[in-house]
From TrEMBL, chain A:
The gene is nasA. This is Nitrate reductase. Keywords: 4Fe-4S, Iron, Iron-sulfur, Metal-binding, Molybdenum, Nitrate assimilation, Oxidoreductase. Its cofactor is Mo-bis(molybdopterin guanine dinucleotide); [4Fe-4S] cluster. It comes from Aquimixticola soesokkakensis. GO terms for cellular component: membrane; oxidoreductase complex.
From TrEMBL, chain B:
The gene is nasD_1. Belongs to the FAD-dependent oxidoreductase family. Its cofactor is FAD. Coiled coil: none annotated. Residues 4-280 form the FAD/NAD(P)-binding domain. The keyword Flavoprotein applies. This is Nitrite reductase [NAD(P)H]. It is an enzyme of class 1 (oxidoreductase). InterPro entries: FAD-bd_OxRdtase, FAD/NAD-bd_sf, FAD/NAD-binding_dom, FAD/NAD-linked_Rdtase_dimer_sf, Rubredoxin_C. GO terms for molecular function: nitrite reductase [NAD(P)H] activity. It comes from Aquimixticola soesokkakensis. Residues 317-383 form the NADH-rubredoxin oxidoreductase C-terminal domain. Transmembrane segments: none annotated.
């Protein structure tokens, strides 16, 4: 997989081993924006794609995380929507787009422009995004276009704008390496931005005086890197950073000259900060003092923040509390220092730049600024400019629910899973007059509710640009043909716009859009905005094709680099603003009925709603079902055993999840991942529990502090199954994942089937008559096992029991599609066949049991020694924190013995 | 002082006794061995493979003339013992008498002949020894011959399968609903029936024999069933069970019930007279399988040397020596309150196994089709081990004993903890 990892990469296409050319492109996952080299092999029966990190890309210099490494496993056309679908029927493009255009036009005509909406995605390319925004704000005449970046970055945008005048990320990734103190807050970098984590880890290894502080209610994998962990109470970040600002003032760390010259609002902000009551953070006073001391005394400090800060009803204030500290100390826009928001999506930044949010215009221009509006309207030659902010995501779906929005077009996102109060979103779409979804799959929870589903191209087929968290624009390039009849999002949007009678959408290629967009940014720069790529407005087709990753701005005045080191903020007076902010606890109230905080987040090997990562077996093997992390004390009090199921209930909904008992989190708090969907684990849709409470400024939902009640979920039986076919489960609980040669599924239900053999055949989608059926039934102890062999090869197996069934899952999964026999029903390998255990290193498929036994048998003492022995952790490094944890556990065990 | 040891009967138990005794104390005994069959010890269990043509008689002789002569055993083979005088300590044979210091009666058993009309006809036989086996082999040498076997137990089925293998058209008459009903449950018996039918054997299950019909020459020609059916045959083999051969012992005045009554040291009611093997009765139990007889032989070898030893009854296991019909049963597998079954089925291969658990212990096992782990399971039954910890893998044999490391939380979910 890493054959192209070294040496200079010629960006022009060249032939790979399988006849396909190597293409430099950009990873479609998180906001790090890593360069990827993809080499398709078209000689295989289904095209295979070799993936390597691009050593020349400044985001990753050749590194990739495990998700990136597995990209080649996610480009199959299996399950793809290959043609337009209207009311569930296959349809032609022309008639379908006529329908979409006429329904939108008629709705606008009858109910006004605000009766329609677009809900788009931080995974769109900037060119797609630009056209969508232009269509809505300039031609439909409504700003009812919002994006899933609202769920992810809106608080950072709001915070940036309040402090800097524009949504500007001041620093660069190099600052993370050059810093002497990296403060990570609300950011599980090790799992969510693994390549940035590794860059910091490498810098720290080279320069051990570098310190890392991790501020997170949970002791995440990122703590492996940190010198100090502050497990603060959920939502108390403002208090902590106010305390820090007060300490900065007290310790004399204020940069008086910077404040004097470039900052407004210092006194008010400090006064608010000094009123802080730090007890709300529920932290050890000594730890707080250490953090403050380190921060005050370390010039080169970077504060990295992400969803733990943003996804809050006080998200914008949290951002400003952080920015206050950097403005007060003048630590901004200089090497190794600054506040640093990292984004969750590959093009969250691009979306912000093109104006994909309902309260922005384009190129960081303001919708509610008449000058800005006029300039854009003139540039676009637009008939009807929207003149007020549109509905932000939560309000938008409420308006769909109330019938104010009668037609909505959802592009490249899955709000039925990812929105707060997700069941209400589902109900809203079910009741909506006209729902259009553009997606690669017609099977997503959202696409299932659409009247029209448009097949969109996906990563590997699309062509355009994305912007990463350090403002670096990179090309995503196509290296595969478009699947079936699928079309690019910019093309579909432009076609609909033309069918609605609008001119200005005659684009033939992405570069046409990019040139227009770059030209518009020049106009924005004239109006005093930060975003300026006007240097690229005359880019030729060939130059666009060969475009190297470039950090904006790109103009005659400035190219790349940092912002604000010498002031120059994008406010009226050019000065930054420090804001007086006050701690506000999460809006939900923990009470007798809902006594625990539910936190949500990501896991290492999945991304978003798993439409892509769920296609990869090795990504599915790390955590193959959704779970609820709960503290041992709480688990005991609630009677929750490890590996049992729990019901988690909020006033909005209930989820059923596997219990993972761990002291990684605080008592009284639970954590659940947000990835699982109706397609993968219907009772694991955790956002159905989250209340639609938003930050008053940013409109970003509070996804990390929902009051819930947790109780044991009793089931009559529990099961685990594998099949070469996709399982068809109808049980109360199920969670399915890909295996290398099929599928795996966890199950539980209220009632035992009357006939286990028939049940298993239906579940595993196997015809018992064409199979050899092996059964093991122990009715008294409640043990039911069925395996199906086809021509001596394992086609499927079900292991069921009255308690969570003990099966060596990795072993059973590995036996699928292999020659097998009765011993498969033992559910574990025989003495001569070691069980690798659940996957820890997804790159090399190394299981936990393999690692633990190597640690014990070979006396391995370091992560590197494990790497030498087993290769685990030597590729993407995403599992290194877990390897370290296994070493510690095993050392503890040894000491105890 | 050399003791004179006389043994009546050279069956398998005697073979084992002599091995043990003469190895441990080669100079202590002067042995005289009577045997009605004109040969020494052979492995009677292997008669079925001989019948099936898988082995020759020579292969199954365990103790040939050289063996006895090398150990100074006086062999009186082919000679019947006519009387025992326990007062005079004398055994009389057809060729003369011999005094003893110790006497072992190991006269074995005789097949039970159902007293049906016609049971005395020519061509009605039992299945017991080399001669019987040869007779069935000879029947197969002529094409188109038919045989009836009465009795669908181990011996009857081995006889039927052996003859079928030699081309004889065989019908088995069995009174129960499935063959080997004392060793197998209905499901395993059903699989066995299917396997037997597949090799051309006709099974009449739930059938009662009424009369054996003969021809004018006084030779068997058919068996008539109670339902009126007539099954033609050239040979009729009775395999409905055995009776301990107790005539000599009874005549000698020893205590005989169904068998020669012995205590745990294999002593009969007369001083220095012991009994061994299928002719014995211990604690009301008779013996027909080789394992307990070997145990008896081992005990008796010690007792004769003046050592302490005691015979005790253990759970019995059965195998069937019919190629392609691997089956095994051991212990108690009847249904009952508090009895729990673990059942494995692989109908496509015709495999079936049932393990019976009571109070956390394995008490019985029936296996059909795959008996590879039978010895291991048998040991677990005998040892009375607690199987709770290994219950889910017990079916799959010793390779799975002692749990291999499982995933997080004992492999009860798809998480890494």
């Amino acid at each position: 997989m890493t054959s192209l990892s070294e040496g200079h990469i010629d960006r022009s296409p060249r032939k790979g081993a399988g006849g396909g050319a190597s293409t430099c492109t950009t990873c479609p996952y998180c906001g790090v924006g890593c360069g990827v080299i993809a080499t398709p092999d078209f000689t295989a029966p289904t095209p295979r794609v070799e993936i390597a990190g691009d050593t020349d890309h400044p985001a990753n210099f050749g590194r990739l995380c495990v998700k990136g490494m597995a990209l080649g496993e996610t480009v199959s056309t299996e399950g793809r929507l290959l043609h337009p679908q209207v009311y569930g029927q296959k349809a032609g493009w022309s008639q379908t787009l006529d329908l979409v255009a006429s329904r939108f036009a008629k709705t606008i005509e009858k109910h006004g422009p605000d009766s329609v909406a677009l809900y788009v995605s931080g995974q769109l390319l900037s060119e797609d995004y630009y056209v969508a925004n232009k269509l809505m704000k300039g031609f439909v005449g409504s700003a009812n276009i919002d994006t899933n970046s609202r769920l992810c970055m809106a608080s950072s945008v709001a915070g940036h704008k309040r402090a800097f005048g524009t949504d500007t990320v001041p620093g660069t990734y190099e600052d993370l390496e050059e810093a002497d103190l990296v403060v990570l807050t609300g950011s599980n970098l090790a799992w969510c931005h693994p390549v940035l984590y590794q860059r910091i880890a490498a810098a720290k290894a080279a320069r051990p005086t570098m310190r890392v502080v991790n501020i997170d209610p949970r002791r995440t994998a990122t703590c492996d890197l940190s010198d100090l962990h502050l497990p603060l109470a959920p939502g108390s970040d403002v208090a902590l950073f106010n305390g820090l600002l007060a300490a900065i003032a007290k310790s004399g760390a204020v940069d008086d000259s910077f404040v004097e010259t470039h900052v407004n609002g210092f006194d008010a902000a400090l006064a608010a900060a000094q009123a802080v009551d730090l007890s709300v953070c529920d932290l050890d006073a000594g730890d707080i003092a250490t953090f403050f001391d380190w921060f005050c005394s370390t010039e080169k400090t970077v504060t990295v923040y992400s969803q733990g800060v943003n996804q809050s009803s006080a998200g914008a204030d949290k951002v400003n509390a952080i920015l206050n500290c950097h403005l007060a100390t003048g630590r901004i826009g200089r090497a190794g220092m600054g506040p640093f928001s990292v984004t969750g999506q590959p093009n969250a930044m691009g979306g912000r730049e093109v104006g994909g949010l309902a309260n922005m215009l384009a190129c960081h221009l303001d919708l509610e600024n008449a000058n800005h509006r006029d300039a854009v309207q003139g540039f676009w030659n637009a008939p009807v400019m929207a003149d007020k902010a549109g509905l932000k995501a939560v309000d938008m779906f409420e308006a769909v629910g109330s019938g104010k929005i009668k037609a909505i077009w959802i592009i490249c996102t899955n709000p039925v899973v990812s929105m707060p109060d997700a069941d209400a979103v589902k109900a809203a779409l079910e009741g909506c007059d006209f729902v259009v979804v553009s997606d690669m799959y017609a099977t997503t929870d959202t696409a299932r509710l659409a009247h029209v589903v448009l097949p969109a191209t996906g990563w590997g087929e699309k062509d355009g640009t994305v912007t990463n968290s350090e403002r670096r624009i990179s090309r995503q390039r196509a290296f595969l043909p478009s699947a079936g009849e699928s079309r690019h999002d910019w093309d579909i949007l432009s076609d609909v716009a033309r069918r609605m009678g609008f001119s200005g959408f005659e684009y033939e290629r992405p570069v046409d859009i990019f040139r227009e967009y770059a030209a518009l940014s020049g106009l924005a720069a004239h109006l005093g905005r930060d975003f300026d790529i006007s240097g690229l407005k005359d880019i030729t087709d060939a130059e666009y094709e060969a475009l190297q990753p470039v950090q904006w701005p790109v103009s005659t005045v400035k190219t790349g680099g940092r912002f604000f080191g010498q002031g120059g903020f994008f406010t009226e007076d050019g000065r930054a603003r420090m804001l007086p902010v006050t701690h506000r606890p999460p809006q939900g109230k923990r009470a007798r009925k809902y006594p625990m905080w539910l936190n949500t987040g990501r896991v290492r090997d999945h991304w978003h709603t798993m439409t892509r990562t769920a296609l990869s077996a090795r990504l599915g093997g790390h955590l193959a079902e959704p779970f609820l992390e709960i503290h041992p004390v709480d688990a005991k009090a609630l009677g929750l055993k490890p590996a049992s199921l729990a019901d988690v209930t909020s006033p909005r909904g209930t989820a059923t999840l596997r219990v993972l008992v761990t002291d990684r989190l605080r008592q009284g708090e639970v954590f659940a991942p947000m990835h699982w969907t109706g397609e993968t684990a219907p009772t694991g849709r955790i956002d159905a529990l989250v209340a639609p409470i938003v930050d008053p400024v940013s409109g970003q939902p509070e996804s990390k502090a929902t009051p819930v009640r947790v109780s044991p979920h009793s089931a009559a039986w529990y099961g685990f199954a594998v099949s070469v076919h996709e399982p068809q489960a109808g049980t109360r609980y199920w969670a399915k994942a890909r295996a290398q040669t099929g599928w795996r599924i966890e199950l539980a239900d209220d009632k035992e089937p009357a006939d286990w053999l028939r049940f298993a055949a239906r579940l595993l989608d196997l015809d018992p008559d064409s199979c050899e059926a092996l059964t093991l039934f122990d009715d008294a102890s409640g043990l039911w096992r069925v395996a199906f062999l086809r021509d001596g090869v394992l086609a499927g197996a079900l292991f069921a029991a009255r308690d969570p069934v003990a099966v060596a899952r990795a072993h059973v999964v590995g036996q699928l599609d292999q020659p097998s026999g009765p011993p498969i029903l033992a559910g574990r390998p025989g003495a001569d066949m070691p069980d690798p255990g659940a996957t820890i290193c997804s790159c090399f498929n190394v299981g936990i049991n393999t690692i633990v036994s190597a640690i014990e048998a070979q006396g391995l003492a370091s992560v590197d020694a494990i790497g030498v022995a087993l290769k685990a952790g030597t590729n993407c490094g995403s599992c290194r924190p877990e390897l370290q944890a296994l070493l510690s556990t095993s050392a503890k065990k040894e000491a105890a013995e | 002082m050399v003791r004179r040891l006389v043994i009546i009967g050279a069956g398998m138990a005697t073979g084992r006794l002599l091995e043990r005794l003469l190895e441990a104390a080669p100079q202590t005994f002067e042995v005289t061995l009577f045997n009605a069959e004109p040969r020494g010890t052979y492995n009677r269990l292997m008669l079925s493979p001989v019948l099936a043509g898988e082995k020759a008689f020579a292969d199954i002789m365990t103790h040939g003339p050289d063996w006895y002569s090398a150990r100074g055993v006086t062999c009186r083979f082919g000679e019947r013992v006519t009387a025992i005088d326990t007062d005079a300590r004398l055994v009389s044979g057809e060729q003369g008498s011999v005094p003893y210091d110790d006497l072992v009666i190991a006269t074995g058993s005789t097949p039970f002949i159902v007293p049906l009309p016609g049971a005395g006809l020519e061509g009605v036989m039992a299945y017991r020894d080399v001669e019987d086996t040869q007779r069935m082999i000879d029947l197969g040498a002529v094409a188109g011959k038919r045989a009836v076997v009465i009795g669908g137990g181990v011996l009857g089925l081995e006889a039927a399968a052996g003859m079928a293998e030699r081309g004889v058209d065989v019908t088995v008459i069995h009174n129960a609903g499935h063959p080997m009903n004392r060793q197998l449950d209905a499901e395993a018996g059903g699989l066995l029936a299917k396997a037997l039918e597949a090799r051309g054997i006709t099974l009449c299950l739930g059938a009662a024999s009424q009369e054996i019909l003969g021809d004018s020459a006084g030779h068997v020609r058919a068996l008539q069933l109670a339902d009126g059916r007539e099954i033609p045959c050239d040979l009729l083999v009775m395999a409905v069970g055995i009776r301990p051969a107790t005539d000599l012992a009874r005549a000698a005045g020893l205590e005989v019930n169904r068998g020669v009554v012995v205590d745990a040291q294999m002593r009969s009611s007369a001083p220095d007279v012991y009994a061994l093997g299928e002719c014995t009765e211990f604690e009301g139990t008779l013996f027909g399988l080789v394992a307990p007889l070997y145990d008896q032989a081992a005990v008796l070898a010690q007792v004769l040397q003046g050592q302490e030893a005691a015979f005790r009854i253990t759970e019995l296991a059965t195998k069937l020596k019919v190629t392609g019909c691997d089956l095994f049963s051991a212990g108690d597998f009847s249904e009952g309150l508090g009895r729990e079954n673990i059942v494995f089925r692989d109908p496509a291969r015709g495999h079936y196994k049932r393990l019976v658990i009571e109070a956390g212990q394995l008490i019985g096992a029936v296996m059909y089709g795959d008996t590879a782990d039978s010895a291991w399971l048998y040991d677990i039954i005998l040892e009375g081990r607690d199987i709770c910890e290994m219950r889910d893998v017990l079916m799959f044999g010793p390779a799975f004993e002692g749990a291999a490391p499982l995933d997080a939380y004992g492999g009860r979910c798809s998480l890494t903890a």
